Amino acid sequence: MRQKLQPLIILFLLNVTIFCQNEWIIYKPNNSGLPITSIAALAFDSAGNLWVGGSLGSLYKFYGGNWTNFSGFGIAGPAIAIAVDANNNIWTGSQSYGLTKFNGTTSTVYNTSNSGLPNNEVRTVAVDSKGKIWAGTSGGVAIFDGTNWTVYNTSNSNLPHNWIYAFAQDKDGVMWVGTAGGLAKSDGSGWQYYNASNSGLPNNYVLSIAIASNGDKWIGTLSGGLARFNNAGWTVFNEANSGLPANRVNAIAIDKSNALWVGTTAGGVAKYDGSTWIVFNESNSLLPYNAVYALALESNGNKWFGTYGGLAVYREGGVVSVEDNFTNNIPVHFNLEQNYPNPFNPSTIISYRIPKTSDVVLEVFNQLGQKIAILVKEFKEAGTHQVEFNSTLVQSNLGSGIYYYKLKAGNFTETKKMLLLK
Predict the structure, then answer these.
(1) Cα separation of 364 and 74, whole Å?
(2) Integer Cα distance of 310 and 63 in angstroms
(3) For the chain, give me the number of helices (H) and strands (E)?
(4) What is the DSSP letter of 339?
(5) Does 341 sit behind a cis peptide bond, omega within 30 degrees of 0 on the bond before it?
(6) Which pLDDT tens digit goes with each residue over 285-329?
(7) For residue 369, how many C-alpha atoms fall within 13 Å in the half-sphere facing its CB?
(8) Are strands 371-380 and 358-365 parallel, antiparallel or unpaired?
């Protein structure tokens, strides 16, 4: 009987192992197009692109199994903070070079020499409900409405410290700000702050903030663990009184089931559903490193973890593959992607997304505005589409230089440029 059971036990264990492995996908330079291992920032845009920033790199985009490197597009320094506005502009903060707005093709850099930015170290970036950009710097909070800058610091407001680490806006439009001197909030008329002396905040260094659908504020600190703040007061979770694996909390995210995901410096990632803690680390999972600095959640249940040792995606029951996302997800907006590779020779891939079935025309022009190719001219179903542009099939003497490709789909029109280098 024992001999008959052994193969069954082995088969069961093998299935469990495969199931667990399918729950994780790890991206590193040795197995993907991601050229960095130290991940500092993650953000999704409305079209489903994952934007990745690293302390040793610049800015990268991941979609449909493909990586695009935007390091040569004028991004100011390594992107240690990322936010996406309503127009899918990517805003990045850097350690020493200021704030960058990137529209997928061109970059605009804001620093102390050409704007109202008070300091070139931008640790965090957020977009509020009115479309204003909030930049957290080492010189206070800077708010940019597209034209004017407003700066708050310890000299002109009740902001408790000039070092800013985190932003989160609640449903009432109040912006909550994590500083090196405590937690601050602004409703547009003034500032109020909470610290270890006047509240239940366990530590004054607030590194991360997330706000639940019920209004609870979750605050991650440098050395005091995690705090929950609501109308009932303060509740602190730390290594001593809970399943939190480490007291430094770098990132917080809340999923659709209102479970909390917590990234720590030394303990990996913890999930808290209100009663139970589950910890994922190097010892019990495929998490590549226990230092987790960034979190991003997809609507399909995939959780993305940016660590010091690479990028991980995890989903209970199995990761929804990027290939499935690429072919099956219906985009939210019309979007024309930057061609890849760019520069190219002799061919490149152009991707575009349409949220509804449309007449689509995709054309290529030279710098004189002369049409040199029609890549698509047909009725297309909603979804994501790709087409190859091969310069040798257009004309044999097509020279090096800048060319333009234009998408028309319904009432949507967008043009981008690409560079042919022979």
Answers:
(1) 24
(2) 17
(3) 2, 35
(4) P
(5) yes
(6) 999 999 999 999 998 889 999 999 999 999 988 887 654 444 445
(7) 0
(8) antiparallel
**More reliable by pLDDT, 165 or 15:** 165
Alpha-carbon distance 223 to 244, whole Å? Answer: 12
Among 116-120, 270-274, 370-374, which stretch is predicted with the lowest mean pLDDT? 370-374
The structure's pTM equals 0.75
Instruction: Indicate the residue type of 243.
Output: G
Distance CA 90, CA 342 (A): 19
Closest CA to 283 of 268, 305, 301, 264: 268
Token reading at 407? 């998408």
**R_g of the chain computed on alpha carbons:** 24
Amino acid at 116: G
The Cα 41–Cα 136 span in angstroms is 14
Structure-token pair, residue 262:
């917590």
The first and second tokens of residue 385, run together, are 């589409």
Closest among 223, 215, 157, 163 to 196, alpha carbons compared: 223
Strand partners, 226: 220, 237
Residue (of 352, 330, 332, 345) closest to 416 by Cα position: 352
Residues paired with residue 142 on neighbouring β-strands, in sequence order: 135, 151
Please give the single-letter amino acid code of residue 140: G
Alpha-carbon distance of 276 to 283, in angstroms, equals 20
The C-alpha angle with vertex 329 and arms to 338 and 348, in degrees rounded to 5, equals 25
| CA 124/CA 145 separation, integer angstroms | 17
Both tokens of residue 111? 């620093």
Instruction: Note the pLDDT of residue 321.
Output: 64
| Number of other residues whose CB lies within 10 A of the CB of residue 337 | 23
Per-residue buried b or exposed e for 302-322, using 16+ beta carbons within 10 Å of the residue's own CB: bbbbbbbbbbbbbbeebbbeb
* Burial call 216-241: b when 16+ CB within 10 Å, e when fewer: bbbbbbbebbbbbbeeeeeebbbeee
Residues 6+ apart with CB under 8 A from 266: 245, 246, 248, 290, 291
What residues are paired with 110 via a beta bridge? Answer: 99
408 HSE (CA, 13 A, CB side): 7
Cis peptide before 343 (omega within 30 of 0): yes
Phi/psi class of residue 387: alpha, beta or left (left: φ > 0; alpha: ψ in -120 to 50)?
A: beta
E strands, 28-98, in order: 39-44, 50-54, 59-63, 66-69, 81-84, 90-93
Percent of the chain with pLDDT over 90: 70
